[in-house]
């Protein structure tokens, strides 16, 4: 063999390898698949699950079921890896939940960076301290740990994620957004910041059949008071069921909240005096609005798919000087109890998991963030990533506390009294999650 012939063969083989690699990368880039599942999270009444959200319920178990609380999951694939977006009609997640779920999914190839858990924050759902093994204090106002309920809930989430990844299909994805007036308000500051964004993400099969819909809107689901003792997903449940009925096609609609720390619902006209009726009317009418926006949302193949997990170091535990007059009174706590409780029940560090699907970026926030910080994060994330639609995934993975700006914390209203990392928590977490979400730029 001549030197020139040998050189030619080497060059040809190298070009062939480049062609194969290029083809594989193209294939992987366009191979966007998704699978979905849903599961009933409503505990059997014999488990005596307390309802969360109000200390004055004193750990009383739910008396029945008004409507089911559901868990839903969409697992996204790109040919190389997978990521699960999980929504739940729940108040929030205790620090032990996600690690335990992931430990049981370890053999299925999952880790903590590939899953984001998002709660609607329903106040007629499972008390999150009843599913917290670190809650050893037996305080009725706080909720008492129930091991059987914890085991039931963990098992349901494990089954949900396993089911969602079973039969993925090729998908097209698209996101759109409108601002809506008169649906929410700032409950803490008169004429304060209000996040009016309604963001809809379509995940369709290749033939255009609806597979899943993500809905992000920011407001507390608190139509029900401490007196209502039936399980309910609240207005987000009505929203999801309304959209599923209008779209049909066995679609799975998944609602997740935003930076709702100081955001609540605005009253709808002629909604009656019953709390149940108010929640029904609000959720149904908002669901119709979402459905109309869904119809105008265009999808495309081969969208960007990336995710990132950002380590977050938390400030030292502390409590607001007003705590004993507000949150402390509601939850039956003293400063002596707080001194023992905070190091046990609250982590010293956490993570912010974020995911990008096309023009959508969900930024995971581990607690109840105030709207001004949330809107700032959304703006900076869009600028850093080039994604049109950044949203806050509120109450993501774990409930830390309320997350406020330093100014709002020092103002000392209810939200500040249930914030357990001092005045620097909001600014510090905001800075670190923006750094994390910037990794989802198309260029990185």
Protein described:
The structure is a single chain. This protein is of the alpha/beta class. The chain is built from eleven helices and 18 strands. The protein has helices at residues 3-30, 97-105, 147-164, 234-247, 275-295, 327-331, 335-345, 371-385, 406-411, 414-417, 425-437; strands at residues 33-40, 64-65, 70-77, 82-88, 115-119, 169-179, 184-186, 197-205, 210-216, 230-231, 252-256, 263-265, 305-313, 349-357, 360-364, 368-369, 389-393, 402-403. The strands form five sheets. The chain has an eight-stranded mixed beta sheet. Strand 8 (197-205) and strand 9 (210-216) form a beta hairpin. Helix 2 (97-105) packs across helix 3. Residues 3-30 have low confidence and may be disordered.
DSSP summary, beta strand count: 18
Major beta sheet, specifics? 8 strands, mixed
Given the structure, what is the number of helices? 11
Mean pLDDT metric: 92
- Separation, N- and C-terminal Cα atoms: 45 Å
Unreliable stretches (pLDDT < 50, length at least 5) are 3-30
């Amino acid at each position: 063999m001549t030197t020139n012939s040998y050189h030619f063969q080497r060059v040809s083989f190298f070009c062939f390898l480049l062609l194969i690699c290029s083809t594989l990368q193209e294939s992987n880039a366009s191979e966007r698949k998704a699978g979905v599942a849903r599961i009933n999270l409503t505990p059997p009444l014999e488990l005596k699950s307390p309802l969360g959200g109000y200390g004055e319920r004193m750990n009383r178990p739910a008396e029945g079921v008004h409507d089911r609380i559901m868990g839903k999951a969409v697992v996204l694939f790109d040919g190389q890896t997978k990521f699960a977006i999980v929504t739940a009609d729940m108040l929030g997640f205790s620090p032990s939940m996600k690690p335990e779920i992931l430990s049981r999914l370890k053999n299925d190839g999952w880790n903590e960076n590939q899953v984001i858990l998002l709660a609607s924050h329903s106040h007629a759902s499972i008390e999150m301290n009843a599913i917290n093994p670190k809650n050893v204090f037996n305080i009725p106002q706080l909720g008492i740990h129930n091991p059987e309920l914890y085991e039931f809930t963990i098992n349901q989430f494990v089954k949900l994620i396993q089911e969602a990844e079973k039969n993925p299909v090729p998908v097209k994805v698209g996101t759109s957004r409108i601002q809506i007036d008169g649906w929410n308000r700032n409950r803490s500051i008169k004429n304060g910041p209000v996040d009016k964004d309604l963001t809809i993400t379509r995940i369709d099969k290749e033939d255009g059949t609806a597979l899943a819909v993500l809905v992000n809107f920011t407001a507390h689901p608190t139509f029900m008071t401490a007196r209502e003792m039936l399980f309910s997903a609240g207005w987000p449940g009505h929203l999801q069921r309304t959209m599923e009925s209008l779209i049909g096609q066995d679609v799975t609609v998944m609602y997740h909240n935003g930076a709702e720390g100081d955001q609540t619902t605005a009253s709808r006209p002629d909604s009656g005096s019953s709390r149940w009726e108010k929640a029904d009317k609000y959720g149904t009418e908002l669901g119709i609005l979402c459905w109309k926006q869904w119809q105008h949302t265009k999808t495309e193949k081969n969208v960007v798919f990336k995710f990132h997990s950002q380590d977050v170091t938390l400030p030292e535990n502390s409590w607001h000087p007003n705590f004993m007059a507000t949150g402390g009174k509601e939850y039956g706590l003293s400063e002596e109890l707080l001194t023992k409780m905070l190091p046990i029940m609250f982590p010293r560090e956490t993570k912010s998991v974020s995911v990008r699907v096309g023009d959508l970026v969900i930024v995971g926030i581990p607690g109840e963030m105030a709207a001004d910080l949330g809107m700032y994060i959304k703006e900076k994330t869009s600028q850093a990533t080039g994604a049109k639609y950044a949203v806050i995934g509120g109450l993501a993975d774990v409930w830390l506390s309320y997350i406020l700006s330093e100014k709002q914390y020092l103002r000392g209203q209810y939200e500040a009294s249930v914030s357990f990392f001092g005045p620097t928590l909001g600014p510090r977490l905001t800075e670190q999650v923006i750094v994390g979400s910037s990794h989802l730029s198309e260029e990185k």
